[in-house]
Amino acid sequence: MKITQEVRDYAAAQHLSEEEALKKGMEGKAVEFKKAGVEIYRKE
């Protein structure tokens, strides 16, 4: 799948294992989520 290949490409570029790349990506998304107000449904 495209997402799987993107993770592999990112991991290779960052010299990380696929597992480490996924963990790093999830940590980044968690920070974004908290900065956006920690709400699943935001008002527009």
Q: Can you put this structure into words, describing what you see?
A:
- The chain is an all-alpha fold.
- The chain has one domain (2-35).
- 70% of the residues lie in helices and 0% in strands.
- It has two helices and no strands.
- Helix 1 (2-14) crosses helix 2 (18-35).
- The longest helix is centred in the middle third of the chain and has 18 residues, at 18-35.
- It is elongated, with a radius of gyration of 13 Å.
- The model has no long low-confidence stretch (mean pLDDT 89).
Brief rundown of the structure:
With 44 residues, the protein is mainly α. The chain is 70% helix and 0% strand. The model has no long low-confidence stretch (mean pLDDT 89).
Identify low-pLDDT runs.
none
Morphology call: elongated
Helix percent band: over 70%
Structural class: mainly alpha
Order of helices and strands: HH
C-alpha end-to-end distance: 32 Å
The radius of gyration computed from the alpha-carbon positions, rounded to a whole number of angstroms, is: 13 Å
Main beta-sheet strand count, sense and barrel state: none
Count of all domains: 1
Helical stretch tally: 2
Summarize model confidence as the mean pLDDT: 89
**What amount of the residues lies in strands?**
under 5%
User: What is the strand tally?
Assistant: 0
Q: What tags apply to this protein structure?
A:
70% helix, elongated, 0% strand, 44 residues, mainly alpha
